[in-house]
Here is the input.
Amino acid sequence: MKAKLYANNEQYVSGMTLKDVAEPESNNMALHTCENQQTVLANREKLAHFLEVPLADFICTQQTHSANFRRVSLADKGRGAYDADDAFCDTDALYTFDAGAVLCSFAADCVPVIIHDRKTGLIGVVHSGWQGTIKEITPKLLQQLIELEQCDPADLDIQIGAAISQQQFEVDQDVYSKFNALGYASEFMYFNNATKKYHIDNQSTVKRQCELAGVPSGQIRVDKNCTFSSPDGFSYRQDKKSGRHLIFAMKK
Here is the structure.
């Protein structure tokens, strides 16, 4: 199983699967975009074996680039693990306090965010493509964790996973304007006179969102590997039929 572990200690494990051309469908993990669902399920079974848990412990969502998130529990294990129709619909982030549930998110250029509260043990995963970023899904989730779940931002560790780089993420005026309207993303954008395109650093924008929510900068790590440029990366921008990485987090 080709995967990158971001954390693996006595409290929790987190990481993301990688593209692997030696594997069926290059290790694609997404049922909603695949050539054969059984191949994807076999790939997921390999990940479950790697994590030493049954696939039935996975919890998945139907992502729609929304700002919707959901608190889940052990009772939700298995949702979307074997059938995309069974996944939580219209949801782009999950969090839980329960040990033994594998929270899953899928991405191919979009920014994955993994949250861990060192004190309470809470874990969360967020899918923040450019639409999720301008809808502020990550700060909205953090606001709920702080205000409703009594998390202290000083106790939060955040991992921003591999995503498309600023160099490769070029957009037109409409997307630039939406980022600019946030009021805190201007330093993460530049205009390319040669192509007449804007380039946006979505990862740094999400990091700033976490900082504005009160999370100390030193507790936010960013994986700068570019999913567009790296042979380990699935990139929707490069290939509209691209597979997906599975971003995972599990409290032990």
